[in-house]
Specification:
By secondary structure, this protein is of the alpha/beta class. Helix content is 45%, strand content 19%. The protein is globular, with a radius of gyration of 24 Å.
């Protein structure tokens, strides 16, 4: 036996045997509760680099939240039940009838995200970066009771500084202000801002905290990617824009799209914020001041749908695939990061075969090289099936919205990739309104007018090395 300790052949054989045992074990473990595309990506990595793949898998490979988060989320639902029951008796809370062709979307979104369709709302589409910031500040300056902000990125720059100054003014008037920012997305700038916020009386906290020596931390790849603002429980903002300068990345100017909402739908946004706040801070925001009697503000039927690893299903993936399959005339998708899984890719291709006009609007520039290269590897398949692709390059188009048959508008923080489907906490709002779709259509028409339409022949003229790089990135796309 002692001789074996110095036998290089023995240790080499033991190493190879351990690697193959690891490969075989992971074939059983990895596909459990995981999409085929994600399982394929992880197994491919583990096959070629078993040790490195195992370490990475243990760090970021299991899209599950810590038990304490799940417990707090369940506690919040129990605590919030009386408030929801009270609101259900509000005369201004009603569930409008929709046409039969829209009923499937309403039912699916409610069963996935737990929020019903609500009538009596107004929806204002905001496509100008600075105008959105100006409108938010103006609403904060008019706040009477509370302001709640949740953003993936809150930077220590001029744009966020203007919003923080408005919050400071609000606190001086006696308004309760709460701010949540994603721990990793806003690092390190939000941490530098925290002392200023707390000194001013603004209640602020990181969400999805990371760090080796901090309580209640989690995995670095499970992020809160939501962008929500709620003022007095009556005005809400949702969309793609963070609290950061539009030129925060060198060489790029970001273009976003948001929607300003008024009416009962804002209470659903408030519920999402209150849930996230309770999980992070252990403070329950259930008083009537935070969920006031609803006000009729318009005639737009709307429905919020949150998603993330805390839900048993990939909410947004199921909703988007269903909406695409149900379309009969026209689909326009504006998306910065689109790495379709098998179901989404098939839905897009099948819709074209059914005679539906499918148009994708994507950025010309790249801000995340590996993700964008992986995305571009799908363009050949999509163009070959008849999907129209427009690349918009006037600015970096970070907006995330979809219109279905000019009847359903989908606007929010979610991308169409595995990260947004499985790993990020996201939120979208569905507007069942032709007026909102028409307004989005104006922005879509501008993208098409200022962008370039790809052709299959032209796209295939890319250099062979670039095609190889794109397809290598595609192999990693389930892990991105």
């Amino acid at each position: 036996m002692p001789e074996l300790l110095y036998d290089q052949k023995f240790w080499l054989n033991a190493f190879f045997a351990a690697e193959w045992a690891l490969r075989l074990a992971m074939i059983v473990i990895v596909p459990f509760r995981r999409s085929p595309d994600a399982a394929k990506g992880w197994l491919l990595l583990i096959f070629f680099e078993p040790v490195a793949g195992l370490i990475l898998y243990l760090l970021i490979g299991r899209p599950t939240l810590p038990v304490w988060r799940l417990v707090r989320h369940a506690d919040f639902e129990a605590l919030a039940k009386p408030a929801y029951e009270r609101l259900a008796r509000d005369a201004n809370i009603f569930h409008p009838d929709v046409s039969p062709e829209l009923r499937h979307a309403v039912t699916l979104a409610e069963n996935l995200g737990d929020f019903p369709i609500l009538g009596g709302n107004s929806a204002e589409v905001l496509a100008d970066y600075q105008v959105t910031v100006d409108r938010l500040i103006a609403d904060i300056d008019m706040a009477c009771d509370h302001v709640h902000l949740l953003f993936y990125i809150i930077a220590d720059d001029a744009t966020a500084g203007r919003v923080v100054a408005a919050l400071e003014r609000a606190v001086e008037r006696g308004v309760a202000c709460r701010v949540l920012a994603d721990s990793l997305g806003s690092r390190p700038e939000f941490q530098r801002m925290l002392p200023r916020l707390l000194r001013a009386g603004i209640l602020a906290e990181e969400t999805m905290r990371v760090g080796f020596f901090r309580r209640h931390t989690g995995r670095i790849d499970l992020r809160n990617h939501r962008k929500i603002a709620v003022i007095d429980g009556d005005i809400g903002y949702i969309g793609s824009q963070n609290l950061i300068d539009s030129t925060f990345k060198r060489g790029l100017t970001y273009e976003e799209l948001n929607v300003r909402l008024c009416g009962p739908i804002v209470l659903e946004l408030q519920a999402v914020f209150a849930d996230d706040w309770y999980v992070e801070v252990d403070e329950f925001l259930g008083e009537a001041r935070y969920f006031p009697d609803a006000r009729i503000a318009g005639d737009v039927p709307a429905q919020a749908m949150p998603s993330g690893p805390g839900y048993p299903r990939e909410n947004n993936q199921r909703l988007v695939v269903s909406l695409i399959h149900a379309a009969t005339e026209r689909i326009v998708i504006t998306m910065p990061y689109l790495i379709p899984d098998g179901a989404l890719l098939q839905a897009l291709q099948t819709s074209v075969l059914r005679g539906v006009e499918v148009t994708l609007v994507v950025p010309l520039q790249m801000d995340q090289i590996l993700v964008c290269l992986g995305q571009r590897s799908y363009y050949d398949e999509l163009l070959s099936s008849g999907v129209r692709i427009c690349r918009y390059g006037k600015r970096f188009l970070h907006a995330k919205h979809i219109t279905i048959d000019d009847q359903i508008a989908w606007i929010g923080s979610s991308n169409l990739d595995i990260r947004s489907f499985s790993l990020n906490a996201e939120i979208v709002v569905l507007l069942y309104d032709r007026g909102a779709c028409k307004r989005l259509g104006e922005e879509q028409a501008r993208y098409l007018r200022d962008g370039e339409m790809l052709t299959l022949a032209g796209w295939r003229q890319r250099s062979p090395p670039l095609k190889v790089i794109e397809n290598l990135a595609r192999m990693l796309s389930p892990l991105l």
